[in-house]
Amino acid sequence: MQHMSDTEFERTCTLISRVLGLEMRAKRVLLECRLTRERERLELPSFTAYLNLIESGANPRAFQRFVDLVTTHYTYFMRESSQFSFLEHVAFPELEQRIPERPWKILCAGCSTGEEAYTLSMLVEEYSRSRSLPPVTIRAIDVSEPALEAARRGIYSASHIDKVPLLWKSLYFSREGEQFRVVQSIRNRITFQSAKLGDANALRGSYDLIMCRNVLIYFTQDAKERALNQLHRHLEPQGFLVLGHAEIARDREKFTYEGNSIYRKQEASIR
Length: 271
Ligand SMILES: C[S@@+](CC[C@H](N)C(=O)[O-])C[C@H]1O[C@@H](n2cnc3c(N)ncnc32)[C@H](O)[C@@H]1O
Description:
The chain is 42% helix and 20% strand. The chain contains ten helices and ten strands. It has helices at residues 6-20, 28-41, 47-56, 60-70, 81-98, 115-128, 145-153, 166-172, 184-187, 221-233; strands at 104-109, 136-142, 155-157, 173-176, 179-182, 190-194, 207-212, 235-243, 255-259, 262-265. Strands 6-2-1-7-8-10-9 form a seven-stranded mixed β-sheet. A hairpin with a 2-residue loop joins strand 9 and strand 10. Helix 1 runs parallel beside helix 3 (47-56) and helix 2 (28-41) packs antiparallel against helix 4 (60-70). The longest helix is centred in the first third of the chain and has 18 residues, at 81-98. Keywords: Methyltransferase, S-adenosyl-L-methionine, Transferase. Its EC number is 2.1.1.80.
């Protein structure tokens, strides 16, 4: 295997930080492995040639694959179930009181292959049973096209859905051979879209609840702060922000802490 030189590695990290706001300097082996296979697939003689191609913008598909290869898509249904329990027992009852009439708007930022958005939609479905809730819309965004394609497909293997409660499996999945397909009623409230947290117009509108879990953890300090400000701007007053367990929003003028990596937009700080 032809290794990346230190200069090529630094150039790769600078490009990733500029394009995606990600800090990858601690992940040299992983980056080299993933990008070596890609460079070979494209039959390019060196990493310098590969980086020239990606930076030139001449091959949009290669650029999309680059974005997909340098991002981490690990996710699963019911991830951090205690946070979903908070939504069911605290956030949803509060929204029900506070917003009885207009639709509830939810954003999943960094939705990967769809498991988080589908879990949320199943939770909404359960919660709305025997209640008359307004419609709930879930906008799910990601930078990776292949991840979004898998999310839109919404078909998973048995091992993928092993954390889903049995009753939910029978209600919210239909069997397709060896695979399991998310049913239409759960899909209907979700729109999967390509958008990059950090881009000026990526978030559009304002949300009552934003889930942005295990995304900021890979961001540079600067990109993290900018993303948190952006998420804050796009939350309704008192809206909820759910982060991953290794992620913190420190600015108490913007967010109050509800525990369990869940925050609430400060009442006084209206956009
Ligand atoms: C580790 S997954 C987290 C998936 C899910 N939120 C969870 O917690 O299970 C992180 C996802 O964030 C996406 N991502 C990274 N940077 C992003 C950005 N600037 N805007 C939108 N999505 C991004 C990646 O493509 C990846 O699919």
